Amino acid sequence: MISGVPAGARAIAVIIVGAVVIFMLVPLAVVVLSSFSASQFLVFPPRGLSLHWYGAVFGDQAYVAAGWTSLKLAILVTALATLVGTPAAIALTWHRLPGREILAGLFLSPLVLPTLIFGLGLLMVYSIYGNGPSFSGLVVGHLVICIPFVIRTVGAVLGASDPSLHEAARTMGANRLQAYWHVVLPQARPGIAAGAFFAFNISFDDAVVALFLRAPGMETLPIRIYSQLEFSPDPSVAAVSTIMIVITIGLVVLIDRFLGLRRVV
Amino acid sequence: MGGATAGRPRGFSVAWRRHKEALVLIAPGALVLVLAFLFPVGHILVLGFLGEEGVSLEHYAAFFVDDYYLGVVGRTFRLAFVITACCLLVGFPLAYLAARVGPRARILLILLVILPLMTSVVIRTFGWLVVLGPGGVLSDFLQAIGLTGAPTGLLHTETGIVIAMVQVLLPFMVLTVLGVLQRQSADLEEAARTMGASFWRVLRTVTLPLSVPGIVSGSLIVFALSISSFITPTLVGGVRLPVLAGSIYQAATGSFDWNFAGVQSTLLLLTALAVIIPYASLMRRRTSWQTGAAPGAGHE
Fold first, then answer.
1. Across the interface, do A143 and B32 touch by the CB < 8 Å criterion?
2. How far apart are CA A102 and CA B195, in angstroms?
3. Three-class SS of residue A215?
4. B217 within a domain of the structure (yes/no)
5. Is residue B61 part of a domain?
6. What is the signed CA dihedral for B287, B289, B290, B296, rounded to 10 degrees?
7. Angle at CA of residue A209, ends A203 and A211, nearest 5°
8. A141 touches chain B (CB under 8 A)
9. What's B132's DSSP letter?
């Protein structure tokens, strides 16, 4: 806490926070409120109150199929990303590989380089060398953007922990696997959990890679929403968006419960 | 060169023996990285240089003589500058507050940026379409306070794109600046206050200079993400206000001109790299300074 802050500064702080609260939450609030509309059209403020559009979403085969696709995709990607990302993070933080900094930079580069270019590149590679985009192709695409999150969270946890514990376990007679299983993994667990949460969130919400890797008969939830927005959306888009917002809030609460938001951010 | 190639197998086997464990651990990730990331990205860059008869710059020439595409590039950069400036203007005070308030208030402020950040960008953009549209919330609000007489909409305007994009990218600015501010203790500020400097003077002469690395890295990452954004500018701006990313998508999936998409992707990637490389080195210096691996680096 800072002491002796002038009243003027306090007033400005209150105004800034108030304005940012409105600015950050307005688009989400508008979506949630419009989803309870009784009207045929997407209007705000909603006219009348009903759960009609939620029924419409669950009765719409396209939405339900997209929901299952997104869920299957996110679960598969989360499992694979943690399986591949965790060992890579261990190697990058604890082992003295030559060119470690550059290697780490390369592994994290999908986080900051334009996802759009990568999505397009993958589409080209699939079309030229394979049979075009598919569900497994999309899994690979999401793996690329999710693994860096696992590497970052696991790396952060391991970087703050003591590598000599691992060496001590080896000296005292544990074989390689035992040392990893009983010493390294328990230390890395909070990082793995955080990475898994992020991976699920990124895969479940991604629209850019999924847009390029669209295949006939395979549509994720964000892509379903995107294509509705390109035309004239009815309140069912708001209902399905609200369901996704609720899932996101659930994830954030889970992260906070298990790991504490402060440690993850 | 010849000596280096001859020496490689032996060097490699030594490296393999010494780093076997690390190489096994990293192999699956490296495989995904090379096959599913570096190869596709490299592929698209090469396409920009392939003409009818082998290597050529014809697609680049076509890009640079066309006023339409130069306009697209101009708009992309103009928007990115304005968006970065707005994010900094709003994000710095917020990050400063979050760094200096108590832990409970800090969590709430972090939640305020994390929650929208973790919501799909498609949904946030959808919200802005409703807010900015004709007869939308903003239009009603402006009419209610008497700023405009008739319903107005900011959809399909650059102002609309900026408003929506600032909301999408603000979390990156806040979290980056907060990361730097939290590492520097409030003691220096307290000391300056105790010695009689006013709050504003401390902010100007102590806090701001110490936050420069955070401000610079936050601005770089927001700028890089801004020029590569696709969903929000495309939906809010519409077809009349294309940005580079939208133009790449159009070339690739609309007119199926992959070479031309390759040209634009290369330009976008080079710009992004020019911004990201200083960002990465800033972040690295910060972390090595933090772990004490490079003592003294923090004084620069």
1. yes
2. 45
3. strand
4. yes
5. no
6. -170
7. 110
8. yes
9. H
Same domain, residue pair B99 and B196: yes
Q: How far apart are CA A72 and CA A200, in angstroms?
A: 10
Domain hosting A193: range is 54-264
Tell me what pLDDT residue A264 has.
60
User: Chain B neighbours among A 86-125 (CB < 8 Å)?
Assistant: 87-88, 90-92, 95-98, 101, 103, 105-107, 109-110, 112-118, 120-125
CA distances from B135 to A236, B139, B148, B150, B153 (A): 20, 6, 12, 9, 7
Write out chain A's pLDDT in tens, 265 residues: 455 788 888 999 999 999 999 999 999 999 999 899 877 777 777 777 888 899 989 999 999 999 999 999 999 999 999 999 999 999 999 888 888 888 998 999 998 899 999 999 999 999 999 999 999 999 999 999 999 999 999 998 998 887 787 778 878 888 888 888 888 888 899 999 999 999 999 999 999 999 999 988 899 999 999 999 988 778 899 999 999 999 999 999 988 888 777 666 5
DSSP string covering B140-199, please? HHHHHTTS-SS----TTSHHHHHHHHHHHHHHHHHHHHHHHHHHS-THHHHHHHHTT--H
* B293 lies within 8 A of chain A by CB: no
**Same domain for B28 and B155:** no
Tell me how close the Cα of A204 comes to any Cα of chain B, in angstroms.
8
Alpha carbon distance A248, A253 (integer Å):
9
Please list every residue in chain B whose beta carbon sits closer than 8 Å to the beta carbon of residue A81: none
Residues of chain B with confidence (pLDDT) below 70: 1-11, 149-151, 285-300
> For chain A, how far is it from start to end, CA to CA, in angstroms?
20
pTM strictly above 0.80? yes
CB contact under 8 A, B125 and A113: no
Domain hosting B17: range is: 2-47
Q: Would the CB atoms of A3 and B33 count as touching at under 8 Å?
A: no
Question: Which pLDDT score, from 0 to 100, does residue A19 have?
Answer: 94
Task: Note the helical H segments in chain B.
Answer: 2-33, 39-47, 58-64, 67-100, 103-118, 121-132, 137-144, 158-183, 187-194, 199-202, 208-227, 231-237, 244-249, 258-291
When CB atoms are compared, the residue of A4, A17, A237 closest to B126 is A237
- Phi, psi torsion values for A250, nearest 5 degrees: -60, -45
Chain B 194-233, residues with CB within 8 Å of chain A CB atoms = 198-200, 221, 224-225, 227-228, 230-231
* Domain at B246, CATH number: 1.10.3720.10
> Is B137 a member of any domain?
yes
Tens of pLDDT, residue by residue over B227-238, are 999 999 999 998
- ipTM over cut 0.90: yes
**Nearest CB partner across the interface for A144, out of B22, B36, B116:** B36
* Domain of residue A138, CATH code: 1.10.3720.10
* Residue B60 forms part of a structural domain: no
